[in-house]
UniProtKB/TrEMBL annotation:
It comes from Aerophototrophica crusticola. The gene is dapB. HAMAP family: DapB (MF_00102). This is 4-hydroxy-tetrahydrodipicolinate reductase. (S)-2,3,4,5-tetrahydrodipicolinate binds at H155, G164, T165. It is found in: Cytoplasm. Catalyzes the conversion of 4-hydroxy-tetrahydrodipicolinate (HTPA) to tetrahydrodipicolinate. Belongs to the DapB family. InterPro entries: DapB_C, DapB_N, DapB_N_CS, DHDPR_bac, NAD(P)-bd_dom_sf. Pathway: Amino-acid biosynthesis; L-lysine biosynthesis via DAP pathway; (S)-tetrahydrodipicolinate from L-aspartate: step 4/4. GO terms for biological process: diaminopimelate biosynthetic process; lysine biosynthetic process via diaminopimelate. It holds the Pfam family DapB_N. NAD(+) binds at G7, C8, G9, G10, R11, M12, G97, T98, T99, A121, A122, N123, F124. The keyword NAD applies.
């Protein structure tokens, strides 16, 4: 299976290169970075401390999509939208981990999914995907007297907030309660906010140091609190899940898939 990595010089891009090189049945077809990037021209192997592969980082995503069965994208929303167009044009499967996507960006991914398989997940770890199911169940079980708050912490370089995972956890909690997250989410509290609105789902964002990704969903009522937590200790867990999704997606019918489909949850 020929797997390409766009944004291969990034924190996740480098993890993905290593994971593809270590995965039986996967062959690295190439990697891209944006025009002007200092990584351009570097060997994909030496970029991640492995033996040279004789394949250089390019700024030609069209060629990468043409020469790959599946491409993995952990970049930025603008880049992901452009990559979705190339995936549709070349019929290449696409695995998207980019977060901070707008509704319009997600609509572009859905359009591409009409032509080619597209897997999108805010978090590719096994633990978080199990947690999503647990959160939905707990939210459905506990009554409206239990307040739901989502707390997340990430490294100082993260550019979107709340994290994609926090929003997915909030969505799972809202689904458990039979409501739409957009109708009940409180993502900003500052100043004289007034008392908590019953039924709302609150979000709190912490940024600092090199934290890979911590998420806690809190269910709080009078004199009692239930907390469900996931802590990521290494980005490898995301890369492993994304490469698994890539091998699963290539050859599937066109469609929009999630990690639930990949993991059979
Ligand atoms: N779903 C999941 O499991 C996970 C999702 N993520 C998400 O993945 C995304 C990337 O995270 P992270 O790796 O930490 O971020 P980085 O900034 O380290 O990596 C992003 C890379 O993409 C590059 N890039 C930007 N635009 C383009 C383009 N047009 N073509 C090719 N490459 C491009 C960037 O280059 P440059 O720096 O030069 O702009 C950078 O090298 C974020 O949205 C993050 O939230 C992260 C971890 C897990
Ligand atoms: O930017 C990150 O690092 C991460 N982003 C994803 C998110 O926004 O949920 C997943 C993970 O928590 C790491």
């Amino acid at each position: 299976m020929r797997v390409g990595i766009v944004g291969c010089g990034g924190r996740m891009g480098q993890m993905l290169l290593r994971e593809v090189l270590a995965t039986p049945g996967a062959t690295l077809s190439g990697g891209t970075e944006r025009p002007g990037s200092p990584s351009l021209g570097r060997d994909l192997g030496t970029l991640v401390g492995a033996d040279p592969l004789g394949v250089a980082v390019t700024d030609d995503p069209a060629a990468l999509f043409r020469d790959s069965d599946v491409v993995i994208d952990f970049t930025s929303p603008a880049a992901t939208v452009a990559h979705a167009g190339l995936a549709a044009e070349h019929g290449t499967a696409l695995v998207v981990g980019t977060t901070g996507l707008s509704a319009a960006d997600s609509a572009v991914l859905a359009q591409a999914a009409a032509k080619t398989p597209v897997v999108v997940a805010a978090n590719f770890s096994l633990g978080v995907n199990l947690l999503l199911g647990l959160v939905e169940k707990v939210a459905a079980t506990l009554g409206p007297d239990w307040d739901i708050e989502v707390l997340e912490m990430h490294h100082r370089h993260k550019v979107d907030a709340p994290s994609g995972t926090a929003l997915a956890l909030g969505k799972a909690a809202a689904a458990g309660r039979g409501v739409e997250l957009d109708a009940v989410k409180d993502t900003v509290r500052d100043g004289h906010t007034g008392a908590r609105v019953p039924g709302h789902i609150g979000f709190a964002t912490l940024r600092g140091g090199d934290v890979v990704g911590d998420h806690t969903v809190m269910f709080a009522t009078e004199a009692e609190r239930v907390e469900l937590t996931h802590k990521a200790g290494d980005r490898r867990i995301f890369a492993r899940g994304a490469v698994r999704a890539a091998l699963w997606a290539a050859g599937k019918p066109a469609g929009l898939y999630g990690m639930k489909d990949v993991l059979g949850l």
